[in-house]
Amino acid sequence: MSLRAVLLPGTALLVPGAAGAAEVLATTRAEVLAALRRLVASAPAGIVLVAPGERSRHGLLRASLGEAGIDGRWLGWREPDATPADRSRAVRTGTAGVAASVGLLALAGAGNHQEVEVVELTGRHGREGSPGSATGTDDLALVAEVARRVAKGAALVVVGDLSDDAPPVRLLLDVAARHSWTSSVVATVERLAGDQELTYAVATFEDLPSDLTR
Predict the structure, then answer these.
(1) What is the pTM of this model?
(2) Rounded to whole angstroms, how far apart are CA atoms 4 and 128?
(3) Which of 49, 85, 182, 200 is deepest in the core (most CB within 10 A)?
(4) How far apart are CA 33 and CA 41, in angstroms?
(5) Mode of pairing for the β-strands spanning 47-52 and 155-159
(6) In this predicted model, what pLDDT tens digit does every residue of 31-42 receive, in sequence order?
(7) pLDDT single digits (tens) 69-92
(8) Is 69 left (phi over 0), alpha (psi -120 to 50) or beta?
């Protein structure tokens, strides 16, 4: 079986350094990195990252946790720097939202060096245009485009929670059902300040062997 998709939590605390000197979400982070390393190793047809956002848009976007009040200088994960010969990275003019940025940074932490197409979904179907996106796109058009990319072999990274009915999760579950992917979920329990405990889920989706899908 080949790994086709990974779902990871969108909390900024997943990124090393986001909580300052405090060590948080270590177990969840390890699970995310292990899953993404497998995905990166088996994604020759590209990677599409889908996350919730304030606007429906897609493009080659830069990661930033600035909206969460976190300076990128303190983060332990950083996207690869562009080089003069790397034309594809030079066109990254937009900045991703926090959830998508967590996914981009996690991919960088897992050793990804190829460009990632970012798709942000709002749950609305009005036509919108925004920097870094195709003019006049909406959720429906973007969902269809993601489905086409996956059908051509692109790997899928989704930021969200399986218990939510958010558009990125709905898209993932629909694509997984359409392609008969099998899923595996690892739940981690993390203790935060004040003995607060939170549960996070990391899910992976794999192709079934062809002889089982006939």
Answers:
(1) 0.87
(2) 29
(3) 49
(4) 12
(5) parallel
(6) 999 999 999 998
(7) 998 888 989 887 654 445 555 455
(8) left
